[in-house]
What does this fold into?
Amino acid sequence: MNESPHPKQQAFTLFTWTIFTAALLVPTAVWANNIGWSLSSVSLYSFFPLLGLIAWMMMWTHYASGAFRITNAGLKKPNHYSKVSNYIVLAAIVLHPGLLALAAFQASGALPPFSLYDYRSDLMLAVLLGTVGWFIFISYEYFSRAKNKPWVKKLGPAISISQSLAMILIFIHGLQLGADLGGGWFRGLWIVYGALLLPCFYIIHKADFTKPSEK
It folds into this structure.
């Protein structure tokens, strides 16, 4: 007979799937409200920002969940959480600039990277920060698949720190460019999410240099 999960594991599983659901539903609801809940008004230009919000908030769940596990020995990742959330993040970070590039090409025939920068040339620095963050996130897909290579293991802490840097860059990128953040409660929530990353960074990177096996 299979033993029932420990109450602490059950609570952690509930916590993880709750923040996972929030990472999908909250930005989607804010975005839908901004377009008046009318699918007829959706265009590539209006849709691609949603994917950026979902990607960052889903990555945030990795940090929150990971920090919680590190500080509570014995907890395991919920079944299917990593695989499902990683697929969502990868799809979102690829489609976020991809749909913008497609929309710009349809509108003017312009090609990236120039079309991406022309879209918000008034906030070029924010666009550049987002671009750097995007490349760092994409690089992790390679490192995760080559994690057993000796040189990747040696660079493990640096790779982990680079991902946190990307989270900061995308946070600023979203704060400056995210029309869906607006000036209301969701912008405040975005800032709260960003602030909560700081203790997560501390916990995770301390473990990177002291007890990597706990991650």
